């Protein structure tokens, strides 16, 4: 079968032939139809410090996908051959304290599809059947292919009550923009998104931001004044991984504000902790998606009118995968979808 894999310890990704993966009794084999490129795939593509430390070579990458059930192990129940599925990319151990309590997103033994074990950029993917998530017929393939990052956005944005609240989102990458769409959908008041990339800020505006602010040329404080925000933001969603963005968030949060942090900073970063202490801020770290509450909520939001289609700005046949990676690299894209069919 075809795979997109890291086969050399250097920048790049290569299409190589590999044997079909083996199927265990509790596994499902998925015939991949569409995949999307994640920021993580870009780190692996560029072979940055994190990838050099984390990714065994060779490794088939990718974890954003939709496909159909091709085969199932003998023990699998509740799925059918031919059924359309996407899947949770975090494979958990099932025996740690959090797994046993049903808090599987907090499993300390999590393995990542396309990071620690073979990924979805392949004609066939094998995962534990419990990780497969059935896709209702009214959700198109392109949207089903981006449920993984939409789930990061949903897990973060739905961590705190947003109804009637003023929300600051730092970082208008695909996840930040989808978080803005969720905040709009569930009834936030002002949704201010910051970035330094005008292409992405215009996508944020299109997806529901009240104001999209290029912090390299416009002051966030003046935007707040314009919106009549006297006291500060009620909820902050950090989705850039850039320390200056987080520091700026701490400045403009109201007292008692709540902050959810998804963005991954490249290294340790200093902040003024007195802002956290004297403002009585609540800070929550976010990893992945809740299994599987986030997945149910994503489907429900899509079915109740949240339209993610503007997020998919580029589509390529998988033969042109390098164009896809270059498009993601350019910063002038939302999600890029590769077609394997
Ligand atoms: P992305 O890199 O596409 O988006 C980050 C955005 O931040 C970019 O558009 C960038 O221009 C912007 N930015 C740069 N400087 C800024 C500044 N000073 N102020 C505001 N914005 C600034 O990433 P993404 O795919 O949307 O993911 C968002 C973040 O979440 C990344 O850091 C990613 O690594 C992380 N992530 C975390 C998890 C998790 O489970 N915790 C999962 C997926 C992604
Ligand atoms: Zn566990």
Automatic annotation (TrEMBL):
Q: Where is the Enoyl reductase (ER) domain?
A: 12-338
The protein's annotated pathway: Amino-acid degradation; L-threonine degradation via oxydo-reductase pathway; glycine from L-threonine: step 1/2
State the InterPro entries in the record.
ADH-like_C (IPR013149), ADH-like_N (IPR013154), ADH_Zn_CS (IPR002328), ER (IPR020843), GroES-like_sf (IPR011032), L-Threonine_3-DHase (IPR004627), NAD(P)-bd_dom_sf (IPR036291), Zn_alcohol_dh (IPR050129)
GO BP annotations listed: L-threonine catabolic process to glycine
Note on cofactor: Binds 2 Zn(2+) ions per subunit.
- Site note Important for catalytic activity for the proton relay mechanism but does not participate directly in the coordination of zinc atom, residues: 148
Q: Does the keyword Lipoprotein apply?
A: no
Its domain of life reads: Bacteria
Residues that bind Zn(2+) 1, according to the entry? 38, 63-64
Q: Which cofactor does it need?
A: Zn(2+)
| Enzyme class name | oxidoreductase
Q: Which residues form the active site?
A: 40, 43
UniProt GO MF annotations: L-threonine 3-dehydrogenase activity; zinc ion binding
- Any idea of its EC number? 1.1.1.103
Question: Record's GO cellular component, any one?
Answer: cytoplasm
The UniProt catalytic activity note for this protein reads: L-threonine + NAD(+) = (2S)-2-amino-3-oxobutanoate + NADH + H(+)
Residues annotated to bind NAD(+): 175, 195, 200, 262-264, 286-287
Summarize where Zn(2+) 2 binds, as residue positions: 93, 96, 99, 107
Function comment: Catalyzes the NAD(+)-dependent oxidation of L-threonine to 2-amino-3-ketobutyrate.
What family name appears in the similarity comment? Belongs to the zinc-containing alcohol dehydrogenase family.
Q: Which PANTHER family does the record associate with it?
A: L-THREONINE 3-DEHYDROGENASE
Q: How does it assemble?
A: Homotetramer.
Which HAMAP family does the annotation name?
Answer: Thr_dehydrog (MF_00627)
Q: Under which name does UniProt file this protein?
A: L-threonine 3-dehydrogenase
Q: Which organism is it from?
A: Usitatibacter rugosus
């Amino acid at each position: 079968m075809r795979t997109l894999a890291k086969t050399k310890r250097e920048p790049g990704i290569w299409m190589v032939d590999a044997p079909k993966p083996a199927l265990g009794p509790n596994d499902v084999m998925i015939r991949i139809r569409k995949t999307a490129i994640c920021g993580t795939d870009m780190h692996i593509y560029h072979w940055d410090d994190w990838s050099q430390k984390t990714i065994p070579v060779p490794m088939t990458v990718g974890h954003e996908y939709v496909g159909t059930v091709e085969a199932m192990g003998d023990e699998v129940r509740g799925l059918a051959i031919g059924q359309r599925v996407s899947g949770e990319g975090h494979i958990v151990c099932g025996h740690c304290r959090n797994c046993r309590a049903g808090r599987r997103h907090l499993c300390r033994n999590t393995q990542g599809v396309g990071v620690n074990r073979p990924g979805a950029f392949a004609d066939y993917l094998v995962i534990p059947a419990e990780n497969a998530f059935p896709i209702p017929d009214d959700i198109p393939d392109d949207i089903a292919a981006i449920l993984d990052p939409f789930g990061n956005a949903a897990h973060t944005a739905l961590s705190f009550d947003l109804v009637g609240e003023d929300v600051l989102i730092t970082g208008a990458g695909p996840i930040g923009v989808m978080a803005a769409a969720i905040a709009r959908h569930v009834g936030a008041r002002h949704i201010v998104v910051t970035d330094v990339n005008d292409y992405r800020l215009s996508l944020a505006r299109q997806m529901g931001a009240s104001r999209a602010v290029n912090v390299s040329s416009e002051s966030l404080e003046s935007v707040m004044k314009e919106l009549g925000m006297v006291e500060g933001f009620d909820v902050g969603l950090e989705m850039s991984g850039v320390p200056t963005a987080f520091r700026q968030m701490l400045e403009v949060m109201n007292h008692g504000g709540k902050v959810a942090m998804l963005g991954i900073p490249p290294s340790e970063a200093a902040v003024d902790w007195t802002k956290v202490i004297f403002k009585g801020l609540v800070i929550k770290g976010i990893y992945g998606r809740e299994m599987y509450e986030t997945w149910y909520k994503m489907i429900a939001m899509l079915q109740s009118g949240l339209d993610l289609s503007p997020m998919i700005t580029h589509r390529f046949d998988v033969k042109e995968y390098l164009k896809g990676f270059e498009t993601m690299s350019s910063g002038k894209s939302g999600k890029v979808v590769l077609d394997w069919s």
